[in-house]
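[Automated response] Your request has been received and processed.

Submitted sequence:
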Amino acid sequence: MRLALLLVVACLSVTGCATIKSWFAPLTPPARAEQPDESARRGARPPAPAAPRTAPPAPGAPRPPAPRPGVPTPAPDASPPVLSPVLSAVDEQRLRVETQQRIDGTEQRLRQIDPAKLASAQQDSLRTVQSFLDKAREAVQAQDIQRAYTLADKAFLLADELTRHPR
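Generated structure:
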């Protein structure tokens, strides 16, 4: 009776350890089952251990492009090209005018606001408006009219909201 009990405990502990060890083993793809005569025919060495896994890059992190032979790589200090839709000269000029109108309208609304009378959340909004305005001006200087318009429009809408709902 004791022998049977020891045999059951031994079997459970052996299989239990194998299961627990598998919890801590690194995930590796299953190896291709090789026939015994296949490795003998090749005269190959046993397979090399797999390289340790490294964490994959963050999803938002851009991967550096692989250098291509014969293609010059840009200087690292060169700013990346601006990606924006191609506008006709007329559309670009119209967008420039609208952007400047939004910037001027935002500045006009900001002059109407007394920062001392604003609640803390509204003061945060005021700082955001000013930040949008600064970035819109920078985008105009960089000839990124689409971005400048978007930032100026956001600043205008937030400033308009602040002037309509004081405290």
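Summary generated for your ticket: Helices lie at 2-24, 36-42, 89-111, 120-141, 145-164. The chain has a mean pLDDT of 75.
If you did not submit this request, please reply to this message.
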